[in-house]
Amino acid sequence: MITRADVEELDRTDPLRGFRDRFVGADDDLIYLDGNSLGRLPVASADRLFDVVHSQWAHGLVRSWESWISWPRSVGDLLGATLLGATEGQVVISDSTSVNLYKLAAAALDLRPSRRTIVTDSGNFPTDRYVLSGLASARGLRVVEIDGAALQDVAAVLSDDTALVALSHVDYRTGALLPMDSITAAAHSAGALVLWDLCHSVGAVPVSLDACAVDFAVGCTYKYVNAGPGAPAFLYVASALHSSARQPIWGWFGQQAQFEMGSVYSPVESIERFLVGSPPILGIALVESGVRLLAEAGIDRLRAKGIALTSLLISLADSWLAPLGFSVGSPRSAADRGSHVSLRHDDAYRISQALIEHQVVPDFRRPDLVRLGCSPLTTSFSDLYEGMRRLRDIVSSGRYLDIEIPARRVT
Fold first, then answer.
1. Which end of the chain is more exposed for a tag (fewer CB within 10 A), N or C?
2. CA quadruple 95, 242, 211, 73: dihedral positive or negative?
3. How high is the pLDDT of residue 411?
4. Which of 19, 102, 222, 385 does the annotation list as catalytic?
5. φ and ψ at 165, to 5 degrees?
6. Rounded distance, CA 40 to CA 364, Å?
7. Angle at Cα 284 formed by Cα 37 and Cα 23, nearest 5°?
């Protein structure tokens, strides 16, 4: 039986324990288990934003663009080197995840013009599936949605007609972590290209894009990277594809001799060809601040704590919650899951709302998942223990049963 003293000892010996104090509000009474949806605000990020606004924008004015114009590439390089396993010149900060997915999927399909099939997972994040379906509809292609995205599931549908395999590295619902290396290799063996969505892995799980020979990748920065709501996303394109892959949105930030304002579009040969318009400078500043904090912590230590937290969560679920009708909806093997765990219950929505009323913030995913994120920098072992205790008490007492389910709820 795990005791409060046990988790207090885990907090005492946690090598990342000092990072918690570097986030706004981390010491209040709220137990925040949704950092995999929106990360907390780092204190340094607030200071960084103040500096960019008051020192650079307010006083440097347009002259500040002499520095700002390189930020999509320089911050992309920092992100690539520290969290993505990508060498210099392959990552830029740009647009949203959805827009980047569209750009890279379109570029990939253009590189395989004789192939007519896109492979994805039926449980992939909705935007990913919508973007792929839209591209397929416009081009007369077909999308094959597999049930489950393990290596054997992907390999079973690959053929010489497969142009692109597009999957999420970590499943947004269950936290299942896919084997990037073997799936990428299988797709390449069939002559297909691969596009990975890293939204639920970047900053929590080690990623090795170069070592896995990945072609394309996208991801957001407002979850574990803690760059704030609406923060710009990133994209990765392997250097071998820079001269041949051409994205569909031709903008002046991807143009050769940008400030000559030429009448004909001719993209640069570098990763910047995947940029479009003026970069969101304030957002990129917050991305840089978040990445530097994670780099200081170290991705291996972040992963180790993420595993310890999710393992504790599953142990408590087995002992406290299984008798109350819960089951674990995430992989039990630590090697096969990211940094969040989903618990299944027939009344998951009501329970999630009741938790919020009791100062525990989870996430609900249809139809029956209470999703609990374990952000390694800001979640303590005591947080998790207390959150699970409140969850047990809410369900065992039936306090969630009087919560009404709206006819149309936002999920």
1. N
2. negative
3. 41
4. 222
5. -110, 120
6. 19
7. 50
Confidence of residue 408 (pLDDT cuts 50, 70, 90): low
Check if 222 is active-site. yes
Helix (H, G, I), strand (E, B), or coil: what is residue 10? helix
The architecture of the domain spanning 4-32+298-397 is Alpha-Beta Complex (3.90)
Contact 91, 84 (CB under 8 A): yes
Tell me what the pLDDT averaged over the chain comes to: 96
Catalytic pick among 371, 381, 385, 392: 371
Q: Answer yes or no: 236 catalytic.
A: no
Q: Name the active-site residue from 32, 125, 274, 326.
A: 125
Tokens standing for residue 73: 């590439």
Could you state, in order of their start, the residue ranges of all structural domains in the chain?
A: 4-32+298-397, 47-296
* Helix, strand, coil percentages for the chain (3-state, nearest 5): 45, 15, 40
Quick one: how far is CA 43 from the chain centroid? 22
Confidence band, pLDDT 50/70/90 cuts, at residue 264: very high
**Is there a contact between 177 and 200 (Cβ–Cβ < 8 Å)?**
no
Phi and psi at residue 312, in whole multiples of 5°?
Answer: -60, -45
CATH code for the part of the protein at 47-296? 3.40.640.10
CA separation, residue 103 to residues 13, 94, 99, 118, 203 (Å): 45, 11, 6, 15, 23
- pLDDT score at 170: 98
Which bin fits 191, alpha (ψ -120 to 50), beta or left (φ > 0)? left
381 residue type, one letter: F
344 noted as active-site residue: no
pLDDT confidence tier of residue 410, bands split at 50, 70 and 90 = very low
Q: Two tokens at 270? A: 């570098």
Which residues lie below 8 Å from residue 207, measured CB to CB, with a gap of 6+?
83, 84, 85, 169, 180, 198, 201
Per the residue annotation, which of 115, 223, 305, 392 is the catalytic one?
223
Mean local confidence (pLDDT), 323-337: 97
Contact between residue 374 and residue 362 where contact means Cβ atoms under 8 Å apart: no
Chain centroid to CA 51: 27
Quick one: pLDDT at residue 28?
80
Is the pLDDT at 236 greater than 50, yes or no?
yes
Residue type, 390: R
Whether 223 is a known active-site residue: answer yes
Say whether 197 is catalytic: yes
- Residue 406: asked if its preceding bond is cis (omega within 30°), the reply is no
User: pTM for the full model?
Assistant: 0.96
